[in-house]
Write a structure and sequence with these properties.
- This protein has 431 residues and is of the alpha/beta class.
- The protein has 3 domains: 145 residues, 3-Layer(aba) Sandwich (Rossmann fold); 112 residues, 3-Layer(aba) Sandwich (Rossmann fold); 145 residues, 3-Layer(aba) Sandwich (Rossmann fold).
- Helix content is 44%, strand content 15%.
- The strands form 3 sheets. A 4-stranded parallel β-sheet has the order 5-4-6-7.
- Helix 1 packs across helix 7 and helix 4 packs across helix 6.
- The model has no long low-confidence stretch (mean pLDDT 93).
Length: 431
């Protein structure tokens, strides 16, 4: 069993990751509740979550993802009248961009929603995503909606004085979403590391960004793609229209020291800048980690020789596997990629496992092995623990176990690598 979101969820959270945009869900309330909860949990905007504060029609006590509340009759006779009423009420309350997303059932009705939007005179700030991809992987729905969003917004340069002005100090982060665990901490950490290169982050597409930042995103010197599953096609869109170069790390997402060094060197090479200051920061973290790892190893013999399993997308599983083996000397027993994984990162991961003599770990279900530590979503880890397939588990993807974090965390960058080390060492210590 695989616990992972689909394209419908990916599409909704793509929009909900924008500070001044909102989803209008054209569908039944059953499709609303979880997505309202998830978007508010991942990116809270309201200071209060008192349900009595959100009793407006179509919100049903939740501050996010209002819906048209379709019922059986609407699927037979059409839902335009109900949609018109919902659109008027929601547009009066939400002042930013509105993106109408059809539920799987509503997409089969075939109502002309665009005509209602034009009749209301709000086509400049409202458009429809007819088909998100539904049961396809979440990343596909995220990118489908992201590309539709770009076509609607038509990003522009900051300055009109030059035909194609480029800010040599500005970069965009592409492929980060509300679907990624600890995304806020990841944004902060990437901004911190890139500052050592003298760079500032313009747009984080699409996690905590604004419409204005997206409109002004085309003047960046390059787009840094953190998770290709969620950003490869978006980066290609920018390259085709504006010539913006895209930077991919050969090791996938910046998880572990090697992958972080690789990404920073790639950015520096593309922009012709010296990465020395940023690399010094990584060397300092290596020294910090060595002190703790060597002491732990002296009395336990670990983490070298400990085994692990992973269930995640390839852009995360590849750098994690590379780092656990190359830096900590741990052995992969089972690596199962989620649907929609990036094919290039998947091919690199498979080749790495073959090179190191762990061919049997490729595409193997973690539930078929007994590993010292497993990396997956919370539900998978609970299942693995109940079956005795791992002694310790680390949540690296959603859905999570509901732990409430007050301090921003991340698994990316230097800080994220140290956090993972902390969780790995303590997980092994308790086994």
């Amino acid at each position: 069993m695989i616990f992972s979101p689909d394209a419908f969820t990916g599409s909704i959270l793509a929009v909900e990751g924008i500070r001044d945009a909102a989803v209008i869900l054209n569908g039944p309330t059953g499709c609303k509740s979880y997505h309202s909860f998830l978007s508010d949990r991942q990116f809270p905007r309201e200071s209060s979550h008192d349900p009595l504060s959100f009793q407006d029609e179509f919100y049903f006590g939740q501050p996010r993802v209002p819906c048209t509340c379709l019922d059986g009759e609407d699927y037979i006779r059409g839902s335009l009248e109900k949609f018109e009423s919902a659109l008027a009420a929601i547009a009066a309350k939400e002042k930013g961009l509105l993106v109408v997303i059809n539920s799987p059932g509503a997409s089969l009705v075939g109502d002309d929603l665009e005509s209602v939007i034009k009749k209301a005179g709000i086509q400049n700030r409202c458009f429809v995503v007819e088909n998100t991809g539904f049961s396809l992987p979440a990343a596909r729905g995220f990118e489908n909606t992201a590309l539709a969003l770009l076509e609607h917004l038509k990003p522009r340069p900051l300055s009109r004085s030059l035909p194609h002005p480029v800010s040599l100090k500005k970069v965009n982060l592409i492929g980060l979403s509300l679907l990624h665990k600890h995304w806020e901490g990841s944004v902060a950490e990437m901004k911190r590391l890139l500052a050592f290169l003298g760079l500032e982050v313009g747009t984080v597409f699409l996690a905590g960004t604004s419409l204005d930042e997206i409109r002004e995103s085309r003047d960046a010197a390059c787009n840094i793609v953190l998770f290709p599953e969620y950003g490869r096609r978006v980066a290609e869109w920018y390259r085709e229209r504006f010539g913006t170069p895209a930077v991919f790390s050969p090791l996938g997402a910046p998880i572990g020291f090697d992958a972080n060094e690789s990404l920073l060197k790639e950015v520096a090479a593309v922009l012709d800048i010296d990465p020395a200051r940023a690399l010094v920061e990584i060397r300092k973290a290596r020294q910090t980690s060595y002190k703790q790892i060597s002491r732990f190893h002296s009395f336990s013999g670990l983490p070298k020789g400990a085994s692990f399993s992973i269930r995640a997308e390839s852009s995360l599983a590849f750098p994690l596997t590379h780092w656990l083996y190359s830096y900590l000397g741990m052995a992969p027993l089972a690596i199962k990629l989620l649907p929609g994984s990036d094919p290039e990162a998947a091919a690199s991961l498979k080749a790495f496992l073959e090179e190191k003599g762990f061919c049997e770990a490729w595409d193997r279900d973690p539930a078929l092995e007994s590993a010292d530590i497993a990396f997956a979503d919370a539900h998978t880890l609970q299942l693995l623990k109940s079956k005795g397939c791992c002694k310790a588990g680390i949540e690296i993807i959603l859905p999570d176990g509901g732990y409430i974090h007050f301090i921003p965390k991340t698994y990316l960058g230097v800080s994220g690598t140290l956090l993972l080390l902390e969780e790995i060492i303590n997980g092994l210590r308790s086994t």
